[in-house]
Amino acid sequence: MRVGFIGLGTMGKPMVINLLNKGYSVKVYNRTADKTAEVVALGAVAVSSAVEVAQETDVIMTMLKDDAAVLEVILGTTGIIHGLSAGQTVIDCSTISPDTSRQIHEALLERAVDFLDAPVTGSKPAAENGTLAFMAGGRFAALDKQRSLFEAIGTKVIYMGPSGSGSSAKLAHNTIAAVNLLGFIEGLTIATKAGLDPERFIEAVLAGGASSKQAESKGSKIINRDFSSQFSLQLMLKDLLLAGELSNSYQLPLPLQKAATNLFQIGLSKGFGDQDMSAIVQCYEEWMQTLVVKQASGYERRKNTRLHIDIPLILSVHQWEQEGSFTGQTIEGKLYDLSESGMQIVSSFPLSMDMFVVIHFPKEADLPPITARVIRIDNDNGSFRYGCMLSGLAPYVRLKIEDYIAIYPYISGDYESTTQ
């Protein structure tokens, strides 16, 4: 069987790799051409337009971001519809509205081409492992004909009904997934605010009646501050909005779906859209002014014994020259200690009393620049240790600094040396 595949994003690329590993001949197209390099190296053939994918292939699969992208690739001016022939099959694995799926079905039916809306369950790991499950809408005979293709990249394909049924099932499914994730995060928030170890609490959840796929797959990502995208927050929001449109068409009041949509909209407004959907926990962290993070026992020992911290910093140094003007330069330093009202910074660069510095933490700390004033200077074996008074530091930012110090040994790879 000759397969065409359009869309080599987070899900599409591993799906193509699995097809190639199973011996399928695969022709690929992606709007960003450089994303085809990896699969081409494995044996895929890249083409320069969507319509070319339809030529000399038996089945065309699409895995795209939204309704607009799917409509453009299939029915657009350079879409595959212009290269299709009777007897071919198009399978869309994207999450789109049922109305869009039915529109495409009708357009392809006129050309005697089967169309299946077959969105997937399972995020990036399932796509990589070939363990996806498909919810399919369309002609059952068309699905049955392509069963071996589905089995090459997944473990299950479930026939849901006529065209649009797969898309409806996926929107209902993702509504459950979003609500489950938020329920898990809210429980995790309570436990963290109560002073419990988040890792131990997750262990308790997984052993009890509150266990879920979301707790299983997102718990470790949250406490390890790993928000790399398996399924992005903005894509979940897109699916929730589509689910809202569908429920509104049925005049269904769905309070949990609406609450989930609002929360993911807040997450998008705070800039978390490209991160994994578990990044929504950062909204809760802001509200409770505490990070949900894996505890590092070395931090408590460091606090008790006053061991220095040695987190690298960049300091912007500002000094007034005369009224209305100042000079500035950038120097390197290290965070030595943190106190209730300030911090100690070590640098080889000489500073003066009452000089203002702007402190920049490493990028992964996700901390804003912090302004401080030098109020004490100690000579420490050829370097200088500066006591700095922090200016206008929000309580939440201070908590983030403390939590970053707690996880720094894991980030730096220096956990052993800080705990021995």
Helix tally equals 17
Secondary-structure-based class equals alpha/beta
Task: Please name the CATH architecture of the largest domain.
Answer: 3-Layer(aba) Sandwich
Regarding CATH, which class of the largest domain? Alpha Beta
Beta content: 15-25%
What's the Cα radius of gyration? 27 Å
> What's the rounded overall pLDDT mean?
90
The largest β sheet comes out as: 6 strands, parallel
CATH superfamily of the largest domain, by name, is NAD(P)-binding Rossmann-like Domain
Low-confidence stretches: 298-307, 415-420
Termini separation comes to 59 Å
Gross geometry: elongated
Share of helix among residues? 40-55%
Looking at CATH, which topology of the largest domain would you report? Rossmann fold
Number of self-contained structural domains: 3
Strand order of the largest sheet: 3-2-1-4-5-6
| SS elements, strand count | 15
Domain 6-phosphogluconate dehydrogenase NADP-binding: 2-161
InterPro entries: 3-OH-isobutyrate_DH-rel_CS (IPR002204), 6-PGluconate_DH-like_C_sf (IPR008927), 6PGD_dom2 (IPR013328), 6PGDH_NADP-bd (IPR006115), HIBADH-like_NADP-bd (IPR029154), NAD(P)-bd_dom_sf (IPR036291), PilZ_domain (IPR009875)
Organism: Paenibacillus baimaensis
Family: Belongs to the HIBADH-related family.
How would you sum up this structure, described in words?
The protein is α/β, with parallel strands linked by helices. The protein folds into three domains: 2-163, 3-Layer(aba) Sandwich (Rossmann fold), CATH 3.40.50; 169-288, N-(1-d-carboxylethyl)-l-norvaline Dehydrogenase, domain 2; 301-419, Thrombin, subunit H (Beta Barrel). Helices cover 43% and strands 23% of the residues. It has helices at residues 12-21, 37-41, 50-53, 67-75, 98-109, 124-129, 140-145, 147-153, 165-193, 198-206, 213-223, 233-249, 255-269, 281-288, 297-305, 395-412, 415-419, and strands at 2-6, 25-29, 45-46, 59-62, 89-92, 114-117, 120-121, 132-137, 154-161, 311-322, 325-338, 342-347, 356-360, 370-380, 383-390. The strands form three sheets. Strands 3-2-1-4-5-6 form a six-stranded parallel β-sheet, sandwiched between helices. The chain has a six-stranded antiparallel barrel with strand order 10-11-12-15-14-13. The model is unreliable at 298-307 and 415-420 (pLDDT under 50).
